[in-house]
């Protein structure tokens, strides 16, 4: 059922209301993904969010073939990759982050500061430790007012501040949620046994994991359960996280603990290798 949106869920009647009528189900799988976080300070009519192909094509069309002044808000994986690509393509790029350096939720400061330096060398202006109070129209296009009191102008503003699960359907069905739809780690059943969930919309052990890699194994476990076939159960492992960058390709493996210390194993101008250990066992590795 293409171009159909699920708009209502009544778990007691096992019925899903859609824009093309109501469907009854024996089992239901929620695979609704996540949507860009929307803040009143970043109005949708002035700030791009690039979570869909349509949005990306719209942004590409607005950028056109000229060099543009682009402000990117949020220095996570998407923001950093986009900033590098746009600067390399000849645009005047400013990257705004609330952290002390880009990728601050993933990287130890030693690695984050190297990334920051390389992005700057590539032409990206980076403004750290600040949030955006408001984006408003201006003769130059848009003016971004920062919490620091400073401001900057842009023709194009892009928000890459992260994703959130739309919990509307889950709440209608009284499913338990915490950032995402809570599922059992082995069965991927929600708190209602006839409803499963997978992918970006779920919360596993209280955490979301919004990467492509785990989804096939999640779908496999659910398919076996739906067909009544034996299965050992889904076993979650953190997928490798990669920054797809030419100036600093990096890979993070394991389960990094943002509060734990990192040990430097090797640090040269060409290679950075860091590790986290717990009880003498390596729990996370960073290669850049
Ligand atoms: C810019 C960007 C770059 C990324 N890069 C990487 C990467 O390099 N590596 C990586 O591992 N991951 C990456 N990701 C994340 C990856 O895309 C997601 O983890 C993956 O797409 C999640 O799949 P999903 O099926 O859970 O959700 P989605 O792919 O988001 O699919 C959800 C679908 O459900 C539909 N839907 C939602 N609500 C309803 C409703 N009520 N009714 C009907 N349909 C509905 C949506 O329209 C959509 O088609 C990236 C994401 C973005 C936005």
Automatic annotation (TrEMBL):
Coiled coil: none annotated. Its cofactor is FAD. One of its GO terms (molecular function) is rubredoxin-NAD+ reductase activity. It comes from the Bacteria. Its EC number is 1.18.1.1. Keywords: FAD, Flavoprotein, Oxidoreductase. The keyword Oxidoreductase applies. It holds the Pfam family Pyr_redox_2. InterPro entries: FAD-bd_OxRdtase, FAD/NAD-bd_sf, FAD/NAD-binding_dom. The keyword Signal does not apply. Residues 17-202 form the FAD/NAD(P)-binding domain. Belongs to the FAD-dependent oxidoreductase family. This is Rubredoxin-NAD+ reductase. It comes from Acetobacter senegalensis.
């Amino acid at each position: 059922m293409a171009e159909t949106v699920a708009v209502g869920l009544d778990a007691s009647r096992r019925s899903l209301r859609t824009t093309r009528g109501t469907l009854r189900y024996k089992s239901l799988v929620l695979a609704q993904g996540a949507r860009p976080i929307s803040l009143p300070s970043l109005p949708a009519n002035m700030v791009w969010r690039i979570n869909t192909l349509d949005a990306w094509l719209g942004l590409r069309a607005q950028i056109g073939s000229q060099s543009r002044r682009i402000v990117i808000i949020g220095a996570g994986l998407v923001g950093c990759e986009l900033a590098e690509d746009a600067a390399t393509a000849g645009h005047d790029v400013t990257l705004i982050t609330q952290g002390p350096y880009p990728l601050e939720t993933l990287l130890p400061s030693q690695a984050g500061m190297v990334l920051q330096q390389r992005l700057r060398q590539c032409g990206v202006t980076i403004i750290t430790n600040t949030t955006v109070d408001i984006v408003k129209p201006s003769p130059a296009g848009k003016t971004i007012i920062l919490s620091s009191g400073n401001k900057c102008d842009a023709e194009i503003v892009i928000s890459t501040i992260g994703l959130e699960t739309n919990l509307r359907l889950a709440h209608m069905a009284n499913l338990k949620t915490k950032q995402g739809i809570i599922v059992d780690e082995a069965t991927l059943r929600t708190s209602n046994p006839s409803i499963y969930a997978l992918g970006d919309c779920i919360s596993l052990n209280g955490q979301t994991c919004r990467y492509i890699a785990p989804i096939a194994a999640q779908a496999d476990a659910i398919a076996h359960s739906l067909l009544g076939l034996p299965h050992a159960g889904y076993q979650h492992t953190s997928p490798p996280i990669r920054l797809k960058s030419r100036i600093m390709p990096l890979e993070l493996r394991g389960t990094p603990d943002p509060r734990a210390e990192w040990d430097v194993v090797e640090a040269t101008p060409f290679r950075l290798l860091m590790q986290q250990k717990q009880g003498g066992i390596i729990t996370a590795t960073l290669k850049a």
